Amino acid sequence: MDSELKILNNSGLKKILIVGVFHGDEPQGEYFINKYLQLKREALKNSLYFIPRLNKNNKRTNANGVDLNRNFPTKNWVKSRRDDYFGGDKPSSEKETKFLVDLINKNSFDAIITIHAPYKIINYDGEAHEIACKISEILGYPVQSDIGYPTPGSFGTYCGKERNIPTITIEIDENKAPEELLGRFIELFDWLGRDF
To answer: What top-level class would CATH report for the domain 6-194?
Structure first.
């Protein structure tokens, strides 16, 4: 797997996984993560596991035309038509999905954060309402427990609902330059590393 995993403070009290760029046409997460990693933060209480860019393709789907956020082995996975939301020919068919499933199987994450666009909300799955509210305070987006449409085979369902790992999907404002949002994301990552 060519997705890079970068870990800050490998021996922290809690483990938090932060994933950027599930969808290749939502590149902002990679920018926030890489800028944060350049700051070389010290004195973190928790371990932060960063995947700056899961999807190397520059469109929503990966190189095989699969929406990675519909490819997880959930109870609600269904084979769908081949469009921008195609979940693959079978669950976990993609190397990116297998990489994340393996990483989650090998680690006990206390929370998982993914960065998406464009809905300007903090969405959550599992027992994550309290964390979602704190992230909402930092980023200024409202908390919404339901994204508003079906998401069979989603990462949030796989981790949050079926594996009981608090899972947050941050949907940023795609009309704002990432530079405008960077300060808030640095504050968020600091909070996850020091105070969560």
So the answer is: alpha beta
